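Hi R.,

Here's the input for the S-adenosylmethionine complex you asked about:
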Amino acid sequence: MESNNQDWLTEQEKFWSQDFGDEYTHRNQGDSLLSGNLSLFAKILARTQKVKSLIEFGANRGINLEAIEQLVPDIKLSAIEINNVAVEELRKSSDIEIYHQSILDFTPHRSWEFVLIKGVLIHINPNYLDEVYDRLYQSSHRYICLVEYYNPTPVEVTYRGHQGKLFKRDFAGEMLDKYKNLQLVDYGFVYHRDCHFPSDDLTWFLLEKTL
Ligand SMILES: C[S@@+](CC[C@H](N)C(=O)[O-])C[C@H]1O[C@@H](n2cnc3c(N)ncnc32)[C@H](O)[C@@H]1O
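And here is the predicted structure with S-adenosylmethionine in place:
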């Protein structure tokens, strides 16, 4: 069944699988996004040991994966994505393993060295965040990287005129509280006024599983 005909668990999944997600996917491209991602992921990957496999939750058309593949050419890439138009774009890159489904329906049957989620936790229905944390945790056998909008306490903000679609909080702090063998490796901020690599104002957290 095509994913946009499904009965979704949450209004947020419906929103991303339909027109809003299609239009976002058309907008979400360009050289400046690629160079910003190259700069961001070079910093994050510099804090890791060699990474050979990575899955991105909510990969859209794959602009993060494209930057990561340029930085680590032999890496094996996987992506979870709900939106049909985005999945069509992901399919143009033959070396990405694609899970065309909602993160809320995803059951990890194996694990990856590096699990990435960027600009997606903020769009998950807060009642289901705990389940998404579990899936991120189960999917990783080493690193988990969250790149999201931070706020010390949970808040909702209007997103391009829509209500109930954007929620900020301390996602990494909540994961560190929930899973006792996760440790914080590093964190940082990317800024829209950066001279060379302006990006959305995003806070990144690199977590690692310890024994
Ligand atoms: C704001 S975009 C971020 C895209 C990409 N991670 C990036 O940094 O450019 C959110 C992405 O997550 C996808 N998404 C939202 N909710 C999802 C869900 N429940 N399951 C899978 N993908 C989802 C959307 O379709 C969209 O591609």
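One thing worth noting: The radius of gyration is 16 Å.

Cheers,
M.
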